[in-house]
# Entry
Amino acid sequence: MVRTNLLSKKKGADQILTVYWFVIIFIVAGAVVYMAYLFYGSPFDARNIEGSLLGNQIANCLTNKGYIIDQAFLPDFQNNFLQDCHLNFSTEDFSDWKTNTQYYAQVVVYKFNSNAQQQSYGESDSSISSNIGNQVLTVSAGNINLKTAWELITPSTGFLGLNLNKRNVNTIVIHDTEGPTALGAIQAISTADLSIHYIIDRDGTIISPDNVNQFAPAQYANALVPESTIAQDAGCYDTRSKTQWPICSATCTDSNGLIATSCQKLSNPPPNEFCCLEFNVKSIGIELVNLGNEPYPDTQIKSLINLVSDISSRYNIPLDRAHIVGHYQTSSYKVDPGTQFPWDTFIQELTSRGAVAIASSTANTEQQQRNIYALDKSGNQYVIQILTLVGKTEKNV
Amino acid sequence: MNKRGITLLLENIIFIILNLIFIAILIFFLISKSGSAGVLEEKYAKEIALVLDSAKPGMMINLNMADAISTAEQNLGKNNVNDSIVTISQNVVTVKLSEQGGYSYSFFNDIKISNHYLDKTGNQYLFFIGDYNG
# Structure
């Protein structure tokens, strides 16, 4: 009886198995189709080869049969580096390619320390690098933002990508320089013994501690500090209106009129005002080159959006006006970034973009660095360090 | 053979045929995807840009583009495939194998391309490198 029942159910069981079989096949097919779309949908990466070719071309341009070319040290060469090395970084303008060139090249030539050269031969690279002498030539060309973007994450990123120097930041303060040039701003900030994390020039160039030497003499470089350092930029917090800005929880004066340790009295204070250090402690400052009463160029705002978006993603800062503030909001007697700053469109574009790390564009930037060794005709030895960065250079038309 | 045996055989044959059809469709999809205009446009735009990056004045470059030419002929019609499937302007290479598509990629080498044309009989594209610009 039992046997008969089993036999009668076998056909039904077979049919269920067949249905399951097709379900499994459809799942597998779906996975294959998805993988095919994923594989063929994403561009294949040629920038590694491109970076290598760019490095080769620069190396061939600077050296000839192991000798550094004489012209390399002439100002003409340094001014016409791209032309002399037959490089053209300005391409037809697809997707903003003209304003944001896709390449960056930097050449630094060090004169080898002749006193130590004997012991360096045949030893490891580290001993060679310790014998590198003075920097005798620096030439760079291309999109500096590629380099800035690449460097923004690299210095503070440690083992397994953990950010070892991260501060507890919850605010971004936007300033304007009240001056016409980035150089002027750097000099003014440094002279006043203040500091800032970033300066964005009118053309969108982001100046950070990593590249400040390319924009200002070395003695003013302390105007820019890395994100891991507290900058002195947000200025003073108006104790009278502190309820508007809950970020600073400190009370600057106690019942006896003593100033709290988290506050600092101004040398020439407006009445009842103190510097609340907590604002600087918890913020990142960005200066925009602007006179304060002129419209902000689109390229500058675009660069600001990219930078704020990146900072927000790394510190989980909400993209709203409570956390992205103007300097005038941290110090009641300040007005920057001024009435011309397009707050509404800026916040709108920022929120529509979301918190996107520059790291993602950095990941799309191929970076290669190589050292080559060359002699001059007098027998002096040089180490030529070539850095090439290739951004994302593709476009469906 | 009894009736039950024939039914079982038929069911199994249909099952196997269905599976084969399914797998064939999947393979056809993968092959067509890998040879699609979009993939070939990207492939050749990058390949040409890299070749031009490493080119020196006086070089003549022959690039076998048989699969791209065949795809362009399918998409544009045999008589409409001409030199314009590859355009080079201001250091940007654009490969266009269909009406709607096209892919661009930039190169950095400041060379003049003195001439470039399609050799249909040889299924290849020829590039003649002139002097450096400037």
Notes: Chain B is about 45% helix and 25% strand. Chain B touches chain A through 38 residues (CB under 8 Å).
